[in-house]
Amino acid sequence: MIRDITLGQYFPGESGIHRLDPRVKIVMALTYIVALFLVKDFWGFFFAVLVLSIIIKASGVPLKFIIRGLKPIFIIIIFTFTVNMFMIGGEVLWQWKFLHITREGLFIAVFMAIRLILLIIGSSLLTLTTKPIHLTDGIESLLKPLTVFKVPAHELAMMMTIALRFIPTLLEETDKIMKAQMARGADFESGNVIRRAKSLIPLLVPLFISAFRIAQDLAMAMEARCYRGGKHRTRMNAIRIRKGDYVAVFLLILFVVIIVAEPSIKGLLV
User: Fold this and answer.
1) Cα separation of 191 and 184, whole Å?
2) Exposed, middle or buried by CB within 10 Å (0-12, 13-18, 19+), for 79?
């Protein structure tokens, strides 16, 4: 389960999506997420799924690898679906004592579950197709205008990228600790949900120690390489906007326009 988390991982490739400017990909990911909250019906989600499928195909990232990343948050999706299905009032379709399922609740439950799945897949594609160093440069470049207000753009970008980059590292460390404790007789799989949650508490202390050790090693490595922050820092490969990036921005604008205008378009067709 832990190894199934794909957030923060990079999938090597030479596709057109991989070669896009990181700033463009960050803006595309954020815009896609915002657009998902503007969708009002399933036709909008159908179009969002179609666009996302084309991007996945163009990126060369295996669909199984992306879907595998949904497994760890499957419980959250089920919880969201269940809460919306039973808590929304309306036309009752099924009832047993105090529990009831309404037509409106079922619609919202499915609607929210689809939105959550698309949001996670769209967000994971950003890190899967962007190298950590390029992600840092992209975030820093987007935050650079805020330096007028003395916002440390480079340091913020570095912290966010390191946090994303070390998610897989910490998950791998957690997996090692779990296997070590299971070899000593620990049980993480039997019992109900509460018992399983309590069995994970002994993992926290060694995991925190390991995280601080990794952070110290990283700090010493950066210090040994004379890292002094973003001031007067140069780059081996400067990021530049290319023709493919302009095409991506145009398609992004077209996507947003269609999502916003979709109810009106559907009304005209009907």
Assistant:
1) 18
2) exposed
